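Researcher: Going back to the complex we discussed earlier. I've cleaned up the inputs and rechecked each line, so this should be the final set. Can you rerun the prediction on the complete assembly and write out the structure?
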Amino acid sequence: MPIEPTIKSRPIYGTLSPQKGTEHLLIADAEGAQAILDLAKSAPEGFFAAAEIVYIPRASGEGHVAALKALKPARFYDGPSIAAALPRLRQTFATAHMGLRVYLAGTEGLIGQAMLAATEAGIDYSSIQTEHRGSLARRVQCVHCKGVTEDVTTQPVTCAHCGLTLFVRDHYSRRLAAFQGVCINAEDRSEQVPVEEVFP
Amino acid sequence: MGIQFRKETFRDDFSFKNSPEHVRRFPFPFHEDSYMYAVNIEPHKPGPKGSVLEFPFDVDEHYVSEMEDRALVLAEDPLRCQSLPHMTLAGWDLLELLMVSMAESYPEHFTLTRDGDTWHWINRPLGIDDTFVFGDTSTLPYGPMEYITRQSQGDYCILDQRDGNLWMDAGIVTTQADWSLDFDIGMNFFEWHAPVPLAHEKGIFTRALKFLLNVQQGQPARRLNWTMTINPRLDTSPENYHKWGPDRTTVTPENVGDKVHLRVELQTFWRLPRSNALVFPIRCYLIKMDELATSPKWAKRLHRVIRDLPEELATYKGLTRYRPTLVEWLSKYDDGGVTSPGFGPD
Ligand code: HEM
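Model: Rerun complete. Updated structure for the full complex:
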């Protein structure tokens, strides 16, 4: 299911394509592997010899590991979670050279958090290639307690930190890599709102 | 004679009210009987004596109590005041703008003495007497933006200007109409306005941004914005929505006059000299329906505005739940006759 533009803060994504650069850092989770494999079809000679792939298979991606490794990147990292990969990514970005090109693919949570790590190291977000693949799950920051709930697939959702029932807005912050969650029945707590799976 | 500062609250027992003189000077935001978003920007020129536009930054009878409310909000939630690292210079610019202006407009309340970089600031209403070195943050108890805006009514956003856009890179926001600085900080003009209905499609934000990018130093501009608030609560933040949201269910035909408030924001735009940033003060004025209805013209006009307000705007402003009760109450003041042009009472 493609992500449609809604409001102006809501990110939209493109299609990965090989860029001119001296080094390439490709970061993906789950179905994002497919975007790297598709990019590989049009990659020039020697592209992956100058590339690092950071891959977080999550629940659905183990089957892609072999295919990604077969691209023969200079470095390959297979991580258990986005959170676990972030310290390593921050280090990579902090020591990156000017010629580094960054490609992000997979869930919005992966794209958003990796982009944040890159921009914190001074890389301009508009220079980063992104492609959404797989689940529509969202990272949601509770505007009340500030806790982030990961992999939200329902509307509304219960805040994993304070327990309020949150309406998941399209309003998105790059600095937090999260959508905004606002108490859905704040005015009348007795209102029961049916929970629907809207970000499968 | 100086301003008589009221001792009052914007929470719990809500003792806030306007004196009769302040009711008359209320910045009523409707110049006609209907309302729609527009690029309503004009030069911020001095207005009539006694009006909220007399001075560049209006200080009124609510000053001391508003500053106490701000301190309470900040103690509970320090994230209401944030400044990205590159914004400190703009903070000093703002400190200068406010101190110079407040001391000039209200010499009986504020005094600024400058000896090179050594500045002496006296704020009598708040009992502050500080000497500091301009540009040296270690000589102030807070960063420059926080220091001066803890002494100045209204919220402040400081916008960095780059790449043909404005970026919300610093601010202090404790009297807001339901938006979060902590969430919006770092966003550009179009991103932080993203939740506003209809205005993007009308091209309003594209034109407004173009105007703002060209605001020159010494030539500030202004506009009015408005919403409604139940009880005279300054801190209607999304952070605390689960605490104040229930107020919206408490409106009855009997208490409309006391509980329902028109909330008007006098927004001004100023270019800052050293940083080239733009500062956007958002000054909030509250008036309860009983006070507003002391002007027959205002009540009549507000009736028509609220009754005919497009649904998208009513929803965005959070009026839906109590709009029918409010319209019914206001209709008592509407004899169907014509209203005079302009903002003034009568
Ligand atoms: C640089 C200065 C400005 C800042 C920092 C600013 C900030 C904001 C913010 C934070 C909101 C709330 C959005 C939300 O729902 O989350 C808002 C609403 C809005 N802004 Fe601005 N704004 C600025 C300038 C302008 C200008 C020049 C216009 C001109 C037309 C404008 C028109 C509006 C409108 C129409 C709304 C919706 C208000 C309502 O219906 O209550 N803004 N603004």
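Model: Worth noting: The longest strand of chain A covers residues 165-173.
Researcher: Good, that matches what I expected from the previous run.
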